[in-house]
């Protein structure tokens, strides 16, 4: 079961965007921690089970293969202040999200449904169905 926090586990096309995001946040005085990058199918299945067949609240609507994390195109982050993840600081997440967008990432804080303040992705205009059919990002 793989649930990586390593940028090196992202798609080679996405890695430089993640690095640019972290660098630009730092340049703006914001430390960010990457909390999740690539997840394998087994790890996604375990997440999907939460709130369904496993205890706790639901944390995702994505089954294995339906999350961009499974395709190495997404990462989650948290802004860090004085060593603590600022999960509830919406304004700080918005600043980070704007920075993510400025380096070419899609920020899920912008989404109308299933808003995720901590989630960024780059899909290169491809869909999950494209990836499931064997397509991938151009390097
Ligand atoms: Zn995510």
Measured between the Cα atoms of the first and last residue, the distance is: 27 Å
SSE class: alpha+beta
The largest sheet is: 5 strands, antiparallel
- DSSP E strands, number: 5
Kindly summarize this structure in a few lines.
With 139 residues, the chain is an alpha+beta fold. Helix content is 29%, strand content 15%. The chain contains four helices and five strands; from the N terminus they run αβαββαββα.
Describe the model.
This protein is of the alpha+beta class and 139 residues long. The chain is 29% helix and 15% strand. The protein is built from four helices and five strands, in the order αβαββαββα. It has helices spanning 15-27, 41-49, 90-102, 128-132; strands at 31-36, 74-81, 84-85, 106-107, 119-121. Strands 1, 2, 3, 4 and 5 form a five-stranded antiparallel β-sheet that branches. Strand 2 (74-81) and strand 3 form a beta hairpin. Helix 1 crosses helix 3 (90-102). It is globular, with a radius of gyration of 15 Å. Zinc ion (ZN) binds at residues 69, 74, 76, 116, 119. Zinc ion binds at residues 69, 74, 76, 116, 119.
């Amino acid at each position: 079961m793989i649930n990586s926090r390593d940028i090196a586990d992202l798609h080679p096309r996405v890695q430089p965007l993640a690095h640019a995001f972290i660098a630009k946040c730092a340049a703006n005085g914001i430390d960010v921690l990457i909390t999740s990058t690539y997840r394998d199918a087994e790890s996604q299945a375990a997440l999907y089970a939460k709130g369904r067949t496993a205890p706790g609240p639901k944390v995702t609507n994505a089954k294995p293969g339906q999350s961009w994390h499974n395709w190495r195109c997404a990462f989650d982050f948290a802004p860090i202040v004085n060593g603590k993840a600022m999960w509830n600081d919406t304004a700080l997440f918005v600043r980070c999200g704007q920075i993510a967008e400025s380096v070419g990432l899609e920020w899920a804080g912008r989404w109308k449904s299933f808003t995720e303040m901590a989630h960024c992705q780059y899909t290169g205009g491809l869909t999950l169905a494209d990836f499931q059919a064997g397509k991938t990002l151009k390097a």
